Amino acid sequence: MPAVVASDTTRTEHEGVLVNTDVDVVVIGGGPVGATALALVGRLGLTAVGLEKDEEMWPTARAVHFDGETMRTLQGLGIAEKFAAVTIPMKHVEVINESGEVLVHASTDHFGDQAWNDHISFHQPDVERLIRGVVDETPGVELRCGVSVTNLRNVDGGVEVTAVAKDGTAQTVRARWVIAADGARSGIRQSLGIQNDKYGEDAQWLVVDGQLVGAPGYAADMIQFGRHTRPALWLRLPGTRVRMEFMLMPDDDPNEIVTPAAVERISRGALPADKFAPDRQAIYTFRGRIAQQWRSGNVFLAGDAAHQAPPLFGQGLCAGLRDVANLAWKLELVKRGLAGDELLDTYESERKPHATFWVETAANQAVIIQTTDPKVAEGRDEFIRANPTASAVPTSPALGPGLHEGDRDERAGKLGMQPILVDGTRLDDMVGTHFLVVADRGIYHQLPAPTKAALDDDGDVVTLLDPLKVGQLLASVGAKAAVIRPDHYILGVGDTADDLDRLVHKIPSVARATPVIATQTTTVTAETR
Fold it and tell me: Which domain range does residue 481 map to?
């Protein structure tokens, strides 16, 4: 993108008509993270404009995997079944060494605690098209394509963004906040002078996507090949689509390595030239990066602009969608005056450690898989044989410090589960984007009357007491009461009315409506929820 000036210098006018727009949010970048940000803030009632430099949606795949948490975020956009129709569950994951020995074989074809499969494969244009469809149908938001940002500056009360369309039309959009989801080479991040911290060693890889017809490929849906002669990855995608990735070696000719004959050779026959039709071949860099700062004034970095990870655990897009799912509801609370600006500081404090965990984990796995030293590979294989779970996908960590009680209870700050109710309904479809209070009825009955009145009157909170709806969720955290945030992370858990009263008053809208009540118990008959 053109150089972006982030200072208070006077913007340069362009030929054409100057268009001024006042909105709550400007999203820079119209990829899946940026489009999801638009859809999320729009469904919360905020106004937003997205600015994307490309006129057409990117036609080929980049990301190909997301997890159950990501699918749950997409479920919140209201078209879960459409997403399910263009994705497939990843049934098996393997690690295979140079000799073809299967060091790890894990079955992944089952629903996880998010009420979706834990590993899901897709063709990115299919998913991105659906997300953009949500944007198109959501009042108050729009995505402008073929528009390049030329200037951005923090001003009193917000941000001013100047951009120019392909036809030369200049646009100045004034917003309270900007979400910069403009990719790994983020011009916004660079213009703000934000540096990246590096994790692991960079390596050049060839990625090849296409249709494999009339050849079996590999039986497992995802394979990490720890071949010291050439590390590689295999993924089976919806329909006849597959992806393979190959580490480049020092003597590779970059022009020859992308030919059909070379792809057949380095895939060891898995991608025969007469049966594999590539639609994307690209040399790119496996890299681990974390932006040192995720907020500058009212500008927030998200997605690859904030973090990049090697693709070993398929968490790149997942992390980006976690970013905007974390940020959207906080912006909405601040917009309505139900929370102060300090709530927005919890975006970086919560998300950065979480994203860093996945970048470090993927970078460490890359070191394991990418070794080209036969002796090191032999030692690695011996270790994996003795410790087969060492290469398993790790459990997602808790958030960093923020709006939760993880500092006093390790169950808080973690992702909560999504029960599937007896009638087949997923809980989020009942709750929506709200704070959720779940409790044993006996605990709830002992809450102070003002607290219960605040819950009854608060449209930002859903309270559920029916054991058929809350029993599984409470059992999963081993508590009698819990408060869950709109992004499905656990604000806190407890076993007494005092615990629940404390937690309820951490919900920003409740905290604004009523002061914290002194510890007391009051027996009141509550309606069944």
Answer: 414-513
The rounded distance, in Å, linking the Cα atoms of 367 and 390 is: 14
Query: Are 158 and 231 part of one and the same domain?
Result: yes
CATH number, domain with residue 458: 3.40.30
401 domain-assigned: no
Whole-model pTM over 0.85: yes
Same domain? For 302 and 447 the reply is: no
Report yes or no on 251 lying in a domain: yes
Return the structure tokens found at 480.
Answer: 């009698």
- 393-440 pLDDT, tens digit per residue, is 788 899 999 999 999 999 999 999 999 999 999 999 999 999 999 999
Q: Which residues pair with 105 in a beta bridge?
A: 94
- Nearest Cα to 490, choosing from 417, 432, 390? 417
Q: Does residue 150 lie within any of the structural domains?
A: yes
pLDDT digits (tens, 9 = 90+) for 36-95: 999 999 999 999 999 999 999 988 888 999 999 999 999 999 999 999 999 999 999 999
Q: Return the pLDDT at 512.
A: 86
DSSP state letters, 168-220: S-EEEEEEEEEEE---TT-HHHHHTTPPEEEEEEEEEEEEEEEEE-SS---SS
Residue 393: exposure state from Cβ atoms within 10 A (0-12, 13-18, ≥19):
middle
The two three-digit tokens of residue 298, written as one number: 């009212």
Domain count along the chain = 2
Does one domain contain both 360 and 424? no
* Residue 327 CB contacts under 8 Å (≥ 6 apart), including other chains: 37, 179, 300, 302, 344, 347
Q: Label residue 144 exposed, middle or buried (CB < 10 Å: 0-12, 13-18, 19+).
A: middle
Report the distance separating Cα 319 and Cα 57, nearest Å: 21
Q: What CATH number has the domain bearing residue 216?
A: 3.50.50.60
Regarding whether 221 and 101 lie in a shared domain, the answer is: yes
pLDDT, tens digit, 9 for 90 and up, residues 88-125: 999 999 999 999 999 999 998 889 999 999 999 999 99
Whether residue 157 is contained in a domain is answered as yes
